[in-house]
Structure to design on (324 residues):
């Protein structure tokens, strides 16, 4: 008999067929309590779980006593209670490598669009305001040869540094938990403490995951340290930044602009002040949202679940100690 799994995210047909060749698949729209209750038998017998953007914690795990592996179609896994998974010897798989280049592209787009006011001036053109040669009120600021500060030098940070260093001649500062020899060798990146980075960088890019340690790491004191000409970009997680403090910094001119792909609350509330500020470029968390990359992430998540349930975990596992 094939193992049973719960699929809570729509997949391309060929990928779903791959799952169905290996497992008995129950598709559900979400992991809400009413959905779990409606499919109680399937959840109770499931050995695998695959999807994204839903909370997986103790309450759900109590309904899934046979669960051996969960596979998320994402690199981030803050929706999962990892301690609870570990306590129940459940493997957690993710997709850390597939989206690296695509997210780095998105970050560079935020840097450029924030600096050159692309969204703002494009809207002015659409409103018919371009009736003569443009003056200083249309101007942006240069990107090339400005100093880029990267907070978090993982795969995405490295891919961003490559674009900035070779494509735009930008000096690179970085802050991370450890020195990164590759960044320093390939891009002449300079390691510095966080406050020094915030003080020196013209563009500050956050690519950190959300943890208890990183909660509101960037706060009112952080924005006060930055240059008034600084542009702040967040493509990590929204709650790493004190959003209210960022709004005040943008309103007061304490920083020049912001390019944001993540927010403390998502979707961003329609009454958020961020939507009324002309010096903000706000994207709907689309860092990895291309057809090619999202397919690759889904394919990786399928492969990860198959490997985990077949006992052949070699990569992409958050808690490999569970397999030992």
């Amino acid at each position: 008999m094939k193992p049973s799994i719960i699929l809570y995210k729509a997949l391309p047909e060929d990928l779903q067929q791959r799952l169905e060749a290996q497992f008995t698949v129950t598709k559900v729209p979400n992991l809400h309590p009413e959905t779990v209750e409606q499919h109680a038998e399937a959840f109770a017998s499931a050995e695998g779980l695959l999807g994204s953007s839903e909370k997986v914690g103790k309450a759900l795990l109590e309904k899934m006593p046979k669960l051996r592996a969960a596979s998320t179609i994402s690199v981030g896994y803050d929706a999962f209670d990892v301690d609870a998974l570990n306590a129940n010897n459940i493997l957690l798989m993710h997709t850390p490598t597939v989206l690296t280049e695509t997210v780095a592209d998105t970050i560079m787009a935020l840097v450029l669009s924030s600096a050159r006011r692309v969204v703002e001036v494009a809207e002015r053109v659409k409103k018919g305001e371009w009736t003569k040669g443009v003056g200083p009120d249309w101007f942006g600021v240069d990107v090339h040869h400005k100093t880029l500060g990267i907070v978090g030098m993982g795969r995405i940070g490295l891919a961003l540094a490559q674009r900035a260093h070779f494509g735009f001649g930008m000096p690179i500062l970085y802050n991370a938990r450890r020195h990164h020899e590759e960044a320093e060798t390939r891009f002449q990146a300079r390691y510095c403490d966080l406050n020094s980075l915030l003080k020196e960088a013209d563009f500050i890019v956050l690519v950190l995951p959300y943890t208890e340690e990183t909660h509101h790491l960037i706060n009112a004191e952080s924005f006060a340290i930055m240059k008034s000409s600084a542009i702040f970009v967040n493509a990590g997680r929204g709650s790493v930044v004190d959003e209210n403090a960022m709004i005040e910094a943008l309103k007061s001119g304490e920083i020049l602009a912001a390019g944001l792909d993540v927010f403390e609350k998502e979707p961003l509330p329609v009454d958020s002040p961020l939507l009324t500020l002309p010096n903000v470029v706000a994207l709907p968390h689309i860092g990895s949202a291309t057809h090619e990359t999202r397919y690759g992430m889904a394919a990786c998540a399928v492969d990860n679940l198959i490997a985990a349930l077949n006992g052949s975990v070699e990569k992409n596992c958050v808690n490999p100690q569970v397999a030992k």
